[in-house]
Queue: 2 jobs
Job 1
Amino acid sequence: MSQLFNRRSMMGMAGGALSAASVLSSSHAHAKLKNDFEPRGGDGIWERLPSLNLEAYDEMSTSTRKWVNGALARAAQQRANELMVKNGMKPDQQISFEDASKLLSNDPIIAMRASSWQRLQWHMWQELKREFYDNYDAYMSEMEATDKTGPGTLELNPGIEPEYTKHEIHMQPGGYTGDPFAGHLYLYGTANFYVGQNYQDQGHAALAAAVPVPADGKVRRILDAGCSCGQQVVALKRRFPDAEVWGVDIGAPMVRYAHMRAVDNGVDVNFRHALAEKTGFPDGYFDIVTSYILHHEVTEQATYEIIRETSRVLRPGGVYFPVDVYTMPSRRVLDGTPMRRIQDWITSRWNHERWWYDYQRSDFLGEMQRSGFALNMDGPEASAYAVNLSQARARQTSGRPQALGDMSGQGGQKNIMGTKI
Ligand SMILES: C[S@@+](CC[C@H](N)C(=O)[O-])C[C@H]1O[C@@H](n2cnc3c(N)ncnc32)[C@H](O)[C@@H]1O
């Protein structure tokens, strides 16, 4: 009976999350540091949301998002199929964006799906922002106190952000570079995006577990490019405890927060505020370079520069494992169905995914080859929606059905990887 009234179980957050949580927290001591501001304490690798109000809000918006991504998205897709058939076409027939827009975008269910998602996203940022700004001094002095504390290091390089990195992507206020609490906002905002399934970084742990190792088995140094709050960096360190692990990100507030979070968890990893296209590391320094959903957020030109820089910092035989929305060959469908086209446009225009189309257009694989990588299209399984991978793993072992709210309806799929020649 008590299970019924466990709020997290009711929100569908327990399940896989709990098993991963117990694995992570068994080796994790949540330190109480000087100036640590955590009004409601820690929960495994995470700090709990600082007020019951905010936690309640988060749970409500998470469950709404599950509905929007699940039942409402399916209803919208069904409406799109019906409208196509009604107009003498097959549901998945490819038509121009203009025709798709004329046909589908004014349908009330399709429009409601799109606008609910957007409104929810906007509201979620505002609620989180209020908390951090209302307690500005406490959160700021907490971060300042760990800037120069170990384990691990933090390097900040003020003023290096090119214009394209200042965009308010996903509607995040200030974007990745322009708000001192960008890391705080991103961590809790994406917890909502992951519909409550990443509260112990289990998606990142699954991705880190999938990362391929060079053929000679040597893993001394690893880089994660576009590391945000360092979840992948920490997960990689847990998998390769003897390796020197680095994260770079162009958002100074992102790496500050990532460093504080790693220090708080006693994990010895390093963060550098740098462009992935100009990391500052010596030639051949790394055995593995990873990136997770970085490339669709940079210009086409930057993507090419990042691939070249990655090649430069990898040693011969080193491995590049970039995971993004089209790095799973089975998902490289550039001309999607009419509904897909509308969705892409909404994502780009209204979720401020400014470089979405640049990424789709880019010759990612060609540039990898030109930059000295041997391509393997059949690399380890990954997912651009990290929790899908952990859910797929959990299903393989438990036989449980796919969770509602699983956005793409896909589990892990073969991802590309490159080996430096
Ligand atoms: C979608 S987030 C990546 C998520 C992250 N890898 C994770 O594990 O959750 C994109 C990140 O890339 C960073 N970024 C964008 N352009 C960059 C660039 N040119 N160089 C380095 N970081 C960049 C952003 O600041 C942001 O933190």
Job 2
Amino acid sequence: MKFSAISDIHVKNSGDQAEKLLLQFLQNPDVRTSDIIFLLGDIFDLMIGPHTQYFTRFQNYFEELKVLNQAGVKICYTEGNHDFHVRNLYKKFFSINKNLNSSLFLMSSHFEYSDAGKNMYFCHGDDIELNNPGYKIYKSIVTSPPLRYYANNLMPHFLIQRIGEYSAEKSRLRNNLRYSLETDLLPVRDNFRESAESFNRKNQKQIIVCGHSHVKDHYISKNGFEYANNGFAQYTKTYISILNGDISFKPVFI
Ligand SMILES: [Mn+2]
């Protein structure tokens, strides 16, 4: 089987470089012929709640979803910390486009698949990350049932902006890392390796794929599993390909 995964594209506006990257990814012939495409969170820099304005703001993206759906490609979507409470947005998308097959579009906090004798786990990455208590508190508040209800029914645009500003500040800190010395990235990379090790002690996978750290990595553990992270996609311009259980990074632009 062939799986293609990407995360952390952080599309801000239609027409920006990040959107070009997202569209190129979805149009890439290798990606289009995947058994499953994984969109592992933070695809958009700010997408919260079921606002139908997103359909027009990111029309190109939703058009590509239609094309892929009609071609029978399965898409697995995990929410990130920049794009969440969007389950009802996609429900609306499929209720508007009744000719599409909604069973080909799955949303979950994580996905598990087995192929070529390997058990694989796909997630955004923040749920397995160790040592980030401030973030965990923030995440538990914004994803709590009252706020989910609020986001889905009442949340005014200004609050979405505020959350966006907070998240943007956090990711600026992370993005700034890519301009710094390679050695400055090592603590983040190593924390995610350790997070994957910790997760794997309890869950026993052969492949763990996640994003969120913005640090690209392919770590082969002596404990019998591999951890892959595509990093900040605007910078790496790659995606993760898993062909018959073998992981590689491939260029989005061909
Ligand atoms: Mn993230």
